[in-house]
Amino acid sequence: MASSGGAVGPAFAYTVVYVRDVAKSAAFYAAAFGYSVRRLNESHKWAELESGSTTIAFTPLHQRETDALTGAVQLPDSPAERGPVEICFDYADVDAAYRRAVDSGAVPVSAPEQKSWGQKVGYVRDIDGIIVRIGSHVRE
Known about the structure:
InterPro entries: Glyas_Bleomycin-R_OHBP_Dase (IPR029068), Glyas_Fos-R_dOase_dom (IPR004360), GlyoxalaseI/FosfomycinResist (IPR050383), VOC_core (IPR037523). With 140 residues, this protein is α/β, with parallel strands linked by helices. The protein has 3 helices and 8 strands.
């Protein structure tokens, strides 16, 4: 839908990842994927990574502030299942980024390989079982 009257459209500001341990997840993403932790509040109920114009944030799986309003977070029943969201990061050197992630505790899912659409892609699971795609940028 086009905006009228010079109104500014919405900006994608946050991706919030629900995790078991906010501080541990923030430290893991810093080590495994090369981000800096921008903010970790004293209660350890919120952390943010320095990740450009869209902030990656972490918050606990269950909180009385949101569970009653929006429902409880549902996790996959087994490691063979995955959640409905995948986090994707682009790197110039996918192989090095994949090794760094695995060396930092990510669980290997699929080693990097060249895809028919021109992207090199590998997959890992983070410490909460969330799938992270490590790929190269695709240029049209």
